[in-house]
Amino acid sequence: MTIAVNPTLTAGTKKVTRVGFLLLDNFTMIALASAVEPLRMANQLSGSELYSWHMVTETGAQVSASDGLSFTPDFSFQNVIDLDIVIVAGGVDITRSFTPKQVSWLQLMGRRRNAIMGGICTGGYVLAHAGLLDGYDCSAHWECMAALQERYPKARCNSRLFSVDRNRMTSSGGNAPLDMFLHMVAKQHGPKLSSAVSDMFICDRIRSEFDQQRVPLRQLHNGGESKPKLVEVIELMENNLEEPIGLDELAHFVSVSRRQLERMFLKYLSCSPSRYYLRLRLDRARQLLKQSSMSIVEISGACGFISTPHFSRCYRKHIGISPRDERKIAWAADGTQNAIREPLQDDSLISLARSASALSSAKVEPSFGSIAV
């Protein structure tokens, strides 16, 4: 897997790579910062403008991040400059945070020759909706994976931190975009620069695209004591929610007795294996109720329940609300619209000057130009 399909992005090139970020409503600031900062630092350490970064919204109006901070973009769809890479910055409530015009624009961008498209946090969901991840490996924040997998089965969704598959690059949320963009810097300008950028951000290591988003039950590794059998069972449960595996079979898979398995769960998780498995299935059901348009009958089957009434009883007992009411609450704000803001003036010089200005300001830093590329 490589992103070097674009001739302007091959290793050793000094051409400025223009990266555009489509900011969706309620995008997550940490994911955006984790994507932009390695580009800025690569410029600083190389002492040259290797990258520029540009924020785009549909109309050029301000957009709010999930933390409530407003962000002023550089371009609208009407005046956006040519971009080498387009990244969808997603965030909260992704299934209802994008518009048909945004999807159409992404499809247009995806048809360009040598187009590189990507998403950070939940942005991969929108790319999948646009049909731009059909047949591609992709990563997205674990909280929206269930909805993505169920609605867009042609996208090969995985639980990795990030995925780079030909001309697609997608990452999960939090600081995972940092690792994906460090990977890109290494591919384009060498591992020495990428490692130096990592050092500047106090990263103990650059994680690979094969690292997983969620290390199962981190609390089971406290004090250096690991419980590999228990972790393996939980991974089996997580990967078999639609057709649950019986406890005897789970025990057999990890070469323990059923009684040993029950003791492990009771000791470390304070519940039975059956109760834990049920909670995993209900958590997935809750994600689908909130993030998909699947019917309750379909969700019941997708989460391994023998019937819809059985699903409803379990959901109400353990979640405290019926599936139907859960969905009503989740979709209650569907008609809420963001305040209309005036689009920005066509002033592309501001955006084009940002990376150059940041580079100029960095000249006073001891690290400026310290890595030859």
From TrEMBL:
Residues 231-329 form the HTH araC/xylS-type domain. SMART domains: HTH_ARAC (SM00342). The lineage of its organism: Bacteria, Pseudomonadati, Pseudomonadota, Gammaproteobacteria, Oceanospirillales. Signal peptide: none annotated. The keyword ATP-binding does not apply. InterPro entries: Class_I_gatase-like, DJ-1/PfpI, Homeodomain-like_sf, HTH_AraC, HTH_AraC-typ_CS, INH-QAR. Keywords: DNA-binding, Transcription, Transcription regulation. This is GlxA family transcriptional regulator. PANTHER family: ARAC-FAMILY TRANSCRIPTIONAL REGULATOR, HTH-TYPE TRANSCRIPTIONAL REGULATOR RV1931C. It comes from Pontibacterium sinense. CDD domains: GATase1_AraC_ArgR_like. GO terms for molecular function: DNA-binding transcription factor activity; sequence-specific DNA binding.
